[in-house]
Design brief:
This is Class I SAM-dependent methyltransferase. Keywords: Methyltransferase, Transferase. GO terms for molecular function: methyltransferase activity. InterPro entries: Methyltransf_25 (IPR041698), SAM-dependent_MTases_sf (IPR029063). The chain contains 8 helices and 12 strands. The protein is of the alpha/beta class. The chain has one domain: Vaccinia Virus protein VP39 (Rossmann fold, 3-Layer(aba) Sandwich), CATH 3.40.50.150. The strands form 3 sheets. It has a 7-stranded mixed sheet, sandwiched between helices. Strand 10 and strand 11 form a beta hairpin. The longest helix has 17 residues. The termini are far apart.
């Protein structure tokens, strides 16, 4: 339900994510064994849209356990830095980096609030600032996020964002065919729910979450106002987990059945600093 923003929103969300790190590491969704064996954690469209990262520095904001971050290192990024507000997640990322034989100069992980990134990451700017899927909904202030991210993009570099489409936040969970929420709502969405995108029978204590929905226009406008040039905005008819009961696995991703009209489930954008 929507409500006014609780004063403890940051700590509430941090406790939820801290508790779920071991659950995620043990889950089929993250498939840690395959990642250790060399499987790429990135999506095909991300690799295609970001392009060649060889010899480039990359900062991953809100990196969780670092599997996406380290996948960029496997693709040749000369230096990757991951930042997340969950200390257990950052510790897991550091363990993965050590297992891959990467030095701190090649892969560094920092535990901090994303809004403080410019003050805590080891370098003042990066060729690529990357934000992976499912990050923006945990932030109340997109303008502040955009200003922070833009400040960390090196001249000639770019920000790349892949996200769940905000349209999915207003559709019903069962079928994804009915409008149930206000697309333009700005209030916090506070829920008490043990479920998440990773299936698990593990009992959990910290089930409360505080989230926000951010229409695409708000995100694009914030990045433009922060001084970045929007190179492209693309929408995708697939997603990464069963967000709606009607979704089915097709062509390696969750999509609506072929006999249904398509709607955007994810989007991606690239914004450069010229």
């Amino acid at each position: 339900m929507y409500s006014t923003t609780p004063t403890d929103w940051l700590e509430t969300n941090r406790k939820r994510w801290d508790e779920r790190v071991p659950i995620h590491l043990a889950s089929d969704f993250y498939d840690v064994a395959s990642f250790r064996a060399g499987k790429d954690a990135l999506r095909d469209f991300e690799r295609a849209e970001v392009g060649d990262v060889r010899g480039k520095s990359l900062l991953h904001l809100q990196c969780h356990v670092g599997m996406d971050t380290l996948s960029w290192a496997r693709h040749g990024a000369s230096r990757v830095v991951g930042l997340d507000f969950s200390e257990p997640a950052v510790e897991a990322a550091r363990d993965f980096a050590a297992e891959l034989g990467l030095t701190p100069e090649q892969a560094t992980f920092v535990a901090a609030d994303v809004y403080d990134a410019a003050q805590v990451v080891p370098d003042p700017s990066y060729d690529i600032v990357y934000t992976g899927v499912g990050a923006l909904c945990w932030l109340p202030d997109i303008q502040r996020w955009a200003e922070t991210a833009a400040s960390l993009v090196a001249p000639g570099g770019f920000l790349y964002l892949a996200e769940f489409h905000p349209l999915t936040d207003i559709l019903d969970d069962a079928t994804g065919s009915r409008l149930e929420h206000d697309y333009f709502a700005r209030e916090a969405w506070v829920e008490e729910d043990p479920a998440g995108y990773v299936d698990s029978d593990t009992p959990t204590v910290h089930n409360r979450s505080v989230e926000w929905q951010h229409p695409i226009g708000e995100v694009v406008s914030a990045l433009a106002a922060a001084g970045l040039r929007i190179d492209f905005l693309r929408e995708h008819d697939m997603t990464l987990y069963r967000r709606f009961g009607a979704l089915e696995i097709r062509d390696g991703a969750y999509r609506f059945p072929e006999d249904r009209p398509r709607v955007p489930l994810m989007y991606s954008l690239k914004a450069s600093k010229v």
